[in-house]
Write a structure and sequence with these properties.
4-stranded antiparallel sheet; 2 domains; 10 strands; Jelly Rolls; 6-stranded antiparallel sheet; Arc Repressor Mutant, subunit A; alpha+beta
């Protein structure tokens, strides 16, 4: 087990077993489940993640940086990225990479983590089977590549089954997990420092990003002036509210491009882009290839 001390005088020794226990006792809500391929040419992604995520690399080598520390993640390895950490990732030497992951929220854990953890899977097939079962369980009326359970009613039994699969994967991960940066294991949670209106805004955008004039509607839901909110948002999230909205829409767009036969012009309109050419440019900038080419490469 990994054990480290951030401050000999005041901080407790981090215990993976204790942290795993807190996760297993907490109520986990899965918000995102996906397997995706990222082609060479995609820009580096620099953003604050607001959910926990467990990632399994299937193909290619991934360079993942969290708060100044970088790890090279190889096929067959898993990484746990804690909520409210700033991360940057890209493929090594412009490789195509493929990985599966799920995102979740949890009740407050005993420790707040500020670095990623990683391990090599002893049984890759076991982890892939768990993720496949989660995909089969995920309700068909809710895209697994964008929103959480706010899209519609979820059978409580299905929620429990998804939570059980997630906890089983976490239970296999944590006994072998190692921290990328031991000094970042125990820290003050960034989530505790985030303005409540920003938390409200992020949750609202996750559920309403397809609405026309979404940002204008959002400003009516919060208690900050638009200018103050934009400054606060950029300081915490590393991007503007408009850029964040585009990211949500482009992630939904890829789900529709790859997993549906809808015309690309209709997809552009459905995810909030009135101009199909602007949509295509933004899609290429975000995903590294055009929507037409992305669709042609699907299996």
């Amino acid at each position: 087990m990994v054990g480290c001390l951030t401050s000999p005088m005041t901080e407790p020794v981090f215990s993976p077993a204790r942290y795993l226990t807190s996760l297993l006792r907490a109520r986990l809500t899965l918000t995102h489940l996906c397997t995706n391929t990222f082609h060479p040419g995609r820009l580096k992604m620099d953003e604050v993640v607001t959910t926990h995520r467990l990632i399994l690399v299937l193909r290619g080598h991934l360079l993942y940086k969290v708060d100044g520390a970088t790890a090279q993640i190889s096929p067959g390895q898993q990484i746990f990225v804690p909520a409210w950490t700033r991360r940057v990732w890209h493929s090594k030497q412009r490789q195509t990479v493929e990985f599966s992951w799920f995102e979740f929220t949890a009740d407050e854990a005993e420790e707040s983590l500020h670095t990623l953890f990683y391990r090599s899977c002893g049984n890759l097939a076991l982890e892939r089977d768990s993720l496949r079962r989660m995909v089969r369980l995920w309700p068909k009326n809710i895209p697994s590549t964008g929103l959480g359970f706010g899209d519609g009613p979820i059978d409580p039994l299905v929620q429990l089954q998804l939570e059980g699969e997630a906890k089983a994967m976490l239970g296999r991960f944590w006994p072998q997990a190692r921290p990328l940066n031991p000094d970042g294991v125990v820290t003050v949670s960034m989530a505790a420092e985030v303005h409540p209106d920003l938390k409200l805004a992020l949750a609202w955008l996750q559920e309403n990003f397809l609405r026309p004039e979404a940002l204008h509607a959002l400003y009516g839901e919060i208690h900050l002036s638009p200018n103050h909110f934009r400054l606060l948002f950029r300081r915490v999230m590393g991007c503007s509210p408009q850029d964040y909205l585009h990211r949500l829409r482009l992630r939904r767009a890829r789900h529709l491009v790859v997993d549906s036969d809808l015309p690309l012009k209709q997809i552009a309109s459905q995810v909030g882009f009135a101009d199909p050419l602007f949509f295509s440019r933004q899609y290429h900038r975000f995903w590294g290839l055009s929507p037409r080419r992305d669709r042609s490469q699907k299996t």
